[in-house]
Amino acid sequence: MEIQYIFELFGTVVFAISGALAGDERQKHDWFGIACFAFITAVGGGTLRDLFLNSYPLVWINDMNVIYAVFAGILLAGLFFKYFSRLRITLMLFDTLGIALFTIVGLEKAHSLGANDFISVMMGMMTAVMGGMLRDVLMNRTPTIFVQEIYATACIVGGVAYLVFDNFGLDRNINFIVSGAIIAAIRIVTVKYNLSLPKFY
Amino acid sequence: MEIQYIFELFGTVVFAISGALAGDERQKHDWFGIACFAFITAVGGGTLRDLFLNSYPLVWINDMNVIYAVFAGILLAGLFFKYFSRLRITLMLFDTLGIALFTIVGLEKAHSLGANDFISVMMGMMTAVMGGMLRDVLMNRTPTIFVQEIYATACIVGGVAYLVFDNFGLDRNINFIVSGAIIAAIRIVTVKYNLSLPKFY
Amino acid sequence: MEIQYIFELFGTVVFAISGALAGDERQKHDWFGIACFAFITAVGGGTLRDLFLNSYPLVWINDMNVIYAVFAGILLAGLFFKYFSRLRITLMLFDTLGIALFTIVGLEKAHSLGANDFISVMMGMMTAVMGGMLRDVLMNRTPTIFVQEIYATACIVGGVAYLVFDNFGLDRNINFIVSGAIIAAIRIVTVKYNLSLPKFY
Q1: Neighbours of chain B (3+ CB pairs under 8 A)
Q2: Are A14 and A95 in contact (CB under 8 A)?
Q3: Residue C30 DSSP SS3
Q4: Using one digit for the tens of pLDDT, what is the confidence trace for A95-140?
Q5: How does it sit in the membrane (chains A, B, C) (predicted)?
Q6: Any long-range contacts for C188-192 (C-beta under 8 Å, 24+ apart)?
Q7: Model confidence over A4-26: pLDDT tens digits?
Q8: Phi, psi dihedrals of residue B90, rounded to the nearest 5°
Q9: Which runs of consecutive H residues, i.e. helices, occur in C54-171?
Q10: Which of A17, B50, B75, C53 falls between 20 and 30 A from B22, CA-CA?
């Protein structure tokens, strides 16, 4: 449990950095706006999951460590902004780590609340991608998850993998790492080779 | 009850088709994006209603048939895409059927949860139109319900009619059909004759 | 308590006016759209707060006076539209009154539900600014709170002041007025002298 908690906080820091840096492109956000984006990116997905599953109190209302993790992410983004923005690859790796961690954390939470396998995978994926989606909507952009390379799909595949391995009795901690690695691997490979899902029409 | 359940699932299929086809105009959505739009259009309104009324578990989390209905809608949209998009009238009729069904389903649910008449009509209307509104927001469009012809207003009129007939002791199943038909009739007539509400300013 | 209730209803009227007038700039909204914007602006922030804190029933579902206050605001906006839109300063003062009232109302409610100081200040700020933010998102604008002059920050400062004064044993009604006045003063001074927070990058 403790390792998972550390993973969750680490994922929160990473997503907060990613959210704070997302404001960059328009160049007109003040500290408050940036803090909002960081916060929404980091806790938005988990909040939606908990609202849908009626799981109260919400994590960030109950545990100040989550708030501290968001502030840590904002601070890091501010301090190392020039460094981060030059290294888009680094950023992408952080974000990939974030979705890998949050997918499994969200799936496990939904499962423990009695959701079936399908809903649990969906909740895992939503925990990972909905924060960024809400941020994009608030910034008046079309959310990238609807138009971009394989992103949410990687979370779904990793979530299914977790359930399959769990069925075969794999140790939970090992399963966490293996399934998370699958998500990260799919994301990295598809970005590197510029793969995408087939268009619908 | 059984007839109403079938109506609800049928409305879900219809809205999922409408949501899947809404992605068309930008031409850059992959399968995942389309599935998201279909899902949000079909269950978004009911989800908001249930969050506002504290009614858990959410319908789509509790009943996999709703999920299957969404997938059926996506599949139908994919298979008959060319057919559907050529027949905009057909699409409009499906959507009209959807809002007629969902308005009464939502109103009845709110009423059974103890909401007063005003709130019940409002919840019926929201069940019908909020899914499409959320989809439009996520697609970075101005929601059509704010700028377009009589749409939500038809739901409100039909909801009020349902309550009036119910007060006069009309049989619930007949009332469902009559009030739903009123919504559909208003929508179709106003589209045909291009009527709209007066502008505010 | 009664004075606070009157403040809350007055804040609702004021925000409904502000929401109804926000539709102006695009000039294509009908009565239904305007009513939606007024409603969302007035009750959106409190609704999000209550969803996050699991506080049911929602205020506007439980108390028709809130609904009447929204309608009063819409009516006033319609009747005095030309007058209001010529007096942008008047409008800004109404909106300032609204955020001052709602910040303290929201903070007190969160506190009474057991939230800690940090979360209570955050909930007060959200009660004040999230309605306008949701309206902006639905209108497909970038929410002004992310790009504009000091607005949410004034709410945060006023909320912190309320807690500090409360700690020193200041009478609750006096504290309500003093802290609200601080919020209004910050907002007015920063608008008058065109002050803003430092940019993040």
Answers
A1: A, C
A2: yes
A3: strand
A4: 888 999 999 999 999 999 999 999 999 999 999 999 989 988 888 7
A5: Multi-pass membrane protein
A6: C188/C93, C188/C96, C190/C149, C190/C150, C190/C154, C191/C92, C191/C149
A7: 788 889 999 989 988 888 765 55
A8: -55, -45
A9: 59-62, 64-79, 81-86, 88-112, 117-138, 152-167
A10: B50
Nearest-CA distance from C54 to chain A in Å? 7
Give residue-wise pLDDT tens across range C150-159: 788 999 999 9
d(CA B4, CA B59): 14
Type of residue numbered C66: V
Spatial distance between the Cα atoms of B99 and B106, rounded to a whole number of angstroms: 10
- Given an 8 Å threshold on Cβ–Cβ distance, is C115 in contact with A81? no
Q: Are A143 and A133 in contact (CB under 8 A)?
A: yes
Q: Using CB atoms, which residue from B140, B142, B201 is nearest to C24?
A: B201
- Please, is B187 exposed, middle or buried when counting C-beta atoms within 10 Å of its C-beta (0-12, 13-18, 19+)? buried
Q: How confident is the model at residue B24 (pLDDT cuts 50, 70, 90)?
A: low
Residue of A nearest to B85 (CA): A201
What is the dihedral angle through the alpha carbons of A172, A173, A176, A179, rounded to the nearest 10 degrees? -80
Whether B29 and A200 lie within 8 Å, measured CB to CB: yes
Sequence ranges of the domains in chain A: 2-192
Query: Hey, what amino acid is at A15?
Result: F
Q: Give residues with Cβ within 8 angstroms of B145, minimum separation 6.
A: B129, B132, B133, B151, B152, C32, C33, C36
Q: Rounded to an integer, what distance in angstroms lies between the CA atom of residue A40 and that of residue A130?
A: 9
Distance CA C7, CA C101 (A): 7
> Under an 8 A CB cutoff, do C137 and B137 touch?
yes
Please state the three-class secondary structure of B67-135 as a single string. HHHHHHHHHHHHHCHHHHHHCHHHHHHHHHHHHHHHHHHHHHHHHHCCCCHHHHHHHHHHHHHHHHHHH
Distance from CA of C174 to the nearest CA of B (A): 34
CA distance C142 to A74: 21
To the nearest whole angstrom, how far is the Cα of B178 from the nearest Cα of chain C? 24
